[in-house]
Design a protein that fits this description.
It is a single chain. The chain is an alpha+beta fold and 174 residues long. The protein is 34% helix and 24% strand. The protein has 5 helices and 7 strands, in the order E-E-E-H-H-H-E-E-E-H-E-H. The protein has helices at 33-51, 61-64, 68-77, 127-138, 152-166; strands at 4-5, 13-14, 23-28, 81-88, 91-100, 111-118, 141-145. A 7-stranded mixed β-sheet has the order 1-7-6-5-4-3-2, with helices on both faces. Strand 4 and strand 5 (91-100) form a beta hairpin. Helix 4 (127-138) packs across helix 5. The termini are close together.
Length: 174
């Protein structure tokens, strides 16, 4: 989506609206070796889910397994990357990678949600939606979220979350 997002403090709060009472927080994953190790393990599950779509966009996880560590290490080295662990009631429940777009050439968005994953056990409880909103609020500016057009559950999730975050003021393109 493309839309300005206001700046606010990324605090945690219990979820409302009939969802489970879960406190969701996001934590900078650069700080903890344990968080980086957890992301490394969860990343393989994430890639397995993406490759199951058989869209051809995402390789079968075994094809790139030897490069996972190299790719993930780039997250933690790149000053334009902001890797986060998503926590539900203090337990790791997912991860996100927010990337700051280059200032030049200006392509429109200031930030991109490059990777976003919530473990199956934490889904359908509002954890992902709340984590995404915390991240959108933490980084002020125009955002871009890319999703595989064949991943209908993810498209519905992002439309719902982005629509709520922007009060329906966003652009979608293919």
């Amino acid at each position: 989506f493309s839309g300005a997002v206001g700046r606010s403090i990324g605090v945690s709060a219990p979820l409302a609206g009939g969802l489970a009472n879960v406190t969701v927080t996001v934590r900078d994953a650069r700080v903890s070796d344990d968080d980086r190790a957890w992301i490394r393990a969860a990343y393989r599950d994430y890639l397995s889910e993406l490759s199951a779509s058989r869209s051809g966009i995402f390789p079968v996880s075994a094809e790139w397994r030897s490069r996972d560590d190299e790719f993930l290490a780039g997250w933690f080295r790149d000053p334009a990357a902001h890797p986060f662990v998503i926590l539900a009631d203090g337990a790791r429940a997912g991860f996100a990678l927010v990337a700051r777009q280059p200032a030049w050439p200006r392509g429109g968005a200031d930030f991109r949600m490059s990777e976003f994953f919530v473990t199956p056990a934490a889904r359908r409880r509002g954890v992902g939606a709340h984590a995404a909103m915390l991240l959108f609020s933490r980084f002020e500016g125009e955002w871009e979220v890319l999703e595989d057009a064949g991943n209908r559950p993810a498209l519905a999730f992002w439309r719902r979350v982005i629509g709520a975050q922007t009060a329906g003021r966003f652009q979608e393109s293919r």
